[in-house]
Structures are given as C-alpha cells and as structure tokens.
Amino acid sequence: MENAEPKKVLVVDDEAAVREIYSKEFTNSGFKVSLAANGEEGLLKAGEENPDLILLDVMMPKMSGIDTLKNLKNNDLTKKIPVLLLTNLGEEQIIKEGFGIGADGYLLKVSYTPAQVVAECRKFLGE
Fold first, then answer.
1. The pTM is what?
2. Burial, 85: exposed, middle or buried (Cβ in 10 Å; 0-12, 13-18, 19+)?
C-alpha cells in the first residue's frame, strides 16, 4: 500500500491478552489499530475514530457484543462501518441474531489464527 492511509481496525474485546495479540498482528500487517476493553468503550471509539472495520467480541461484561452491535447500527455515525463478530460461541441463534442486526461476518476465535483473522479482514475491506 504505497501512499495509502493504513486501514483502521477497532478491536473490542474484554480480554487484554486477546486485544494484545490482535493489536500486534494488525499493526505488523500495516493496519492502524485501536482497542476497546468493552462495548461502551467500543461505541465511543467507533464514533470518534470512524474505523474502517470493527472486530467485536460477543461475550463481554457491561454490554454484550450483540448490544454493542445494535447501538453501532442504530447510530448514523457508525452504522456503515463493517462489523465482524469474533467469538468462541458457535451458537446458531447468536449468529442469526448478529446477522439480523447487521453484522458483516462471524469468526470463531478457535477456528482462526490471528494471521487468518487479519486475512479475513482484508477480504472484507476489499484488499
């Protein structure tokens, strides 16, 4: 990507180790990374920073990823930002609910290495 602005990815996950892993992987892959430890923080950062993509954990305290997704999609500032749900839950009901609300994709943490998650995000961003 010569002369192009790096794509911005917002990683919303309540586990510090997970945020750290994805932060390093995306940064090493040429992305600008922003991190949020919960849904409320994720909503604030999404509105302020207008990322190109949001990676959103489903199971979080305070505000679940599903509730965070609802808020993102109901806000004019953030409703067009692609959101990939990143979770260990493979429950069909949650997957359906996420897509019904407007999630653009769904990745199971256990099925993807961080490098594969970055590759999936590149596909969503058309790279």
1. 0.93
2. buried
Number of domains in the chain: 1
Find the domain containing 49 and state its range: 8-124
Q: Which helix (H) or strand (E) holds 75?
A: none
DSSP 78: T
Q: Does residue 11 sit in helix, strand or coil?
A: strand
Angle at alpha carbon of residue 102, lines to 74 and 72, rounded to 5°:
35
Tokens at 12, concatenated: 């919303």
For the stretch 62-77, pLDDT in tens is 899 999 999 999 999 9
Interval 22-35: pLDDT, tens: 999 999 999 999 99
